[in-house]
Structure formats: C-alpha cells, structure tokens
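User: Structure please.
Assistant: Input sequence and predicted structure:
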Amino acid sequence: VKRPLTAEDLENGITVKVTPAAVGEDTVVTAVVTDPQGNTSPEGKDNSTVDLVVPGDVDGDGEKT
C-alpha cells in the first residue's frame, strides 16, 4: 500500500488487510516508510501462521463433530 502517512496514522496506527497464505504457511508483512526527500526507514516485518483447522472436525466441514 503506497499512501501518505498522516499525524493520525502516527497517533492511532493503521490497519492494512492482506490475503493470508495457505493453511499452515506463514503470512509475512513488511513495511518501509519513505519521506518526501526519499529517505527510507529500516524495514519493519511481522508474520503469522494461518490455522483454520477446527479441533474435533473429523469430516472437514469446519464444525466440531
């Protein structure tokens, strides 16, 4: 997502929606901020693993059986 960073963003943070990776795989998000003069921040990075398996779901319908 490329857009200007506002004072409100700095105060409240921002939310960026991403499409998760496949079940069991890491979703990685990286961010860099560039000012109007072209100076860039160090890269920020975070990750999560998607787990869509319902404990006790023996038939794969997404519900505990």
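Helices lie at 7-12.
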